[in-house]
Design a protein that fits this description.
Layout: E1 3-9, H1 15-28, E2 32-38, H2 55-64, E3 67-72, H3 73-78, E4 90-93, H4 96-105, E5 109-111
Parallel strand pairs: 1-2, 1-5, 2-3, 3-4
């Protein structure tokens, strides 16, 4: 059985909790379809121009384990983060809230750290 899990992050202060949750989940379950939708000020964390403690290595490791990071284009514009400054393993979606609704309609379990 594939576990369909959707994490939603919109605050910078919740990134460490999210990363711990993702690490624990990817270690505990093998068959995961894991999405992470980021909007609000949370998008700042995925900019390669922001220097925060070894975040790129941890994010890349989680992406290699199957976590798909999806950033809201509206939030990028609002927080003045350029799409080309995102890490290469990060995707974008037109509107984070719409994407969250669509994933929930597809049966994903919603988790907000």
């Amino acid at each position: 059985m594939t576990h369909k899990v959707l994490f939603h992050l919109d605050e910078l202060k919740s990134w460490n909790i999210l990363l711990a949750n993702l690490e624990n989940l990817t270690n505990a379950l093998d068959d995961l379809d894991l999405k992470v939708v980021i909007n609000g000020e949370g998008v700042k964390y995925l900019s390669s121009k922001e220097s925060l403690d070894q975040k790129e290595d941890k994010l890349k490791e989680l992406a290699e384990k199957g976590a798909q990071f999806l950033v809201c284009k509206n939030a990028l514009k609002t927080h003045k983060v350029e799409e080309e400054d995102l890490y290469s393993f990060v995707g974008t979606v037109p509107a984070g809230v719409v994407t969250i609704i669509e994933f929930q309609e597809e049966g994903y379990s919603y988790i907000k750290p």
